[in-house]
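Components:
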Amino acid sequence: MLIDGRAVPAGTELATDLCIVGAGAAGITLGMTLAGQGFDVLLLESGGLDPDVESQALAGGEIGGIGYWPLQSARIRCFGGSTGHWQGWCRPFEPMDFAKRSWVPHSGWPIGLADVQPYYPRAQEICELGTFDYDPKDWDLKEAPPLPLAGDAVRTRLIQFSTPTRFGVRYRTPILAAPNVRLCLYSNVVRMDPTANGSQITKLNIATLAGNKFSVKARVFVLAAGGIDNPRLMLASNQVLNTGIGNANDLVGRYFADHIQLDTAGLFPLRDDVSFDLYMENRTPKRSQLKTGSVGAAIMGYLTLSEQAQRTARTLNYSCKIQETYLSDYYLHSRSQDITEASKVTQMAEKVRTIMNSVGDAVSIAGDRAVGKARKFYKLATTQEQAPNPASRVMLGEKKDALGVRVARLEWQLTDLDRHTIKTAVVRLAQAFGEPGIARLQVPIDLDAKEWPSNIGCSWHHCGTTRMHADPKQGVVDANCKVHGMQNLYVAGSSVFTTNGHGNPTLTIVALSLRLAEHLRKVFSGAAP
Amino acid sequence: MSDAEFVCRRRRFILAAAAAVAGLSAVRFSGVVTESDLLKRVLHALGYGDESAATTAAIDARLARILRTKSLSTPARDLKQRIRANIEADYRAGALRVVDGWWLSETEADCLELIGRS
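Structure:
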């Protein structure tokens, strides 16, 4: 059933058993999985079925720290949420991602891979992928084999590509057809009201851009509004508890983590008998096959540090893609910013000379390409785990949005452990490619510099801001995603990630949402508190 | 051929072999040095009789390091194999050095620095 929140009479109080705030990958997975159960579900969505400028403007915010993309472009406010601009890359977490690592402060989930693993196969189906198998050994890769790298520090893993599944389009019908699910569009939660002792949420206050206001009462609430808006809503609901909801230990919004993106090294191949095709997007067959004959998928290889390598060098989890590129793009992209930072004429002259040499090389290569003898050139694009860092956080900004709610302010901060991981990975990659003479690495950035390179980027993967931990002093939600100290408030999505692993979060968001749905079924059946 | 001339040719040969084995042609893309530049610089660095004794000794020491031997008399047929093995051993052991952004084996870096110093 579909409700347009703009048409709900002012002052109405909608009642339901379960209210889910946010209809993205997490919220829709919850809604679909709980369809047909013996309790009512109300799914609130800030936007409409399709994106619109006014709703999207509510996602705006302030940026501090080392910088970030504008927040209004970092996620989408409509049915389907950020799956609307998702690229479809899927890879599961690994055992080490859940573990407490002595060299990674604040690491360690209260659950392990064994707790999530049972939900990955169904998550694969929801994301329209192949069989849950990411081990290159199990795939038929005769046409595009893994690189024969030296040693065991660097290994090849696989990504499976979703089409990508646009949850708002693909799952619109099942949500609207579910007899116990109501989807309420254009409905923005502006405040959660707790009881006086702060142990329960009594109602949600809703406002629309049309001007009407109403409320929602429920037995159980789930925040599924993403890693920026989940903490924002908890912090902004500070009328009864001045620190906000679930924030007695000042943890809500802290530990914001994204996956660092950085063009880390040029890769110059030396051997004609080694193919990089497995690692090229769209270079493998449209649907690769498993040796077992199970359901195949579009796949791509990428490189990671083995668990042993991480343990030995005390790094975070690391991955990098190999991307074919133009030499001129690589140098001008990675070095152009340096020019503006050069303070001395001599430095400037040196950098200009280097770039001109590079441009000369590019012209030379272009000439080679024209006569069919071009050398291929690649870059290593890092995507790595971010160290849990309480100083990296989402707070309330000074400005207010069109509905009078203070906007989010993001202070993205990195640590020396993040830098150590990149540098260690470059050494291991140089060794793995160098020993068998496959390629040499050229690193255009100073890995020892105090400042982060100007071309560092993020992935729009907002994690950690309501992190999971058994100890209320170290995490916002418990192992069941219930907010510590609250009886009826849960959180879904990547904001519950204690650590964010090395790669794309959507598959794990869906798997954890399936796990939460199972828990909520038990709650409503009386089998769980 | 005089002894001095023989030694110079020998050095040039070792360097050229090292450059070829080390895959230094890849480095030309960085603007560090081109293959033809490399040979010109080798010729210049190891020119006939225009070097000081100190420079010659330093170059010989570096070449000996590249070959992992105190003698420059490694048979030609073993030369490339020896250098290749040294490079692989460097990478295996993590004996890397950064030269103008290139993360190279010590052996390769020695070659580049020797050439670059000329």
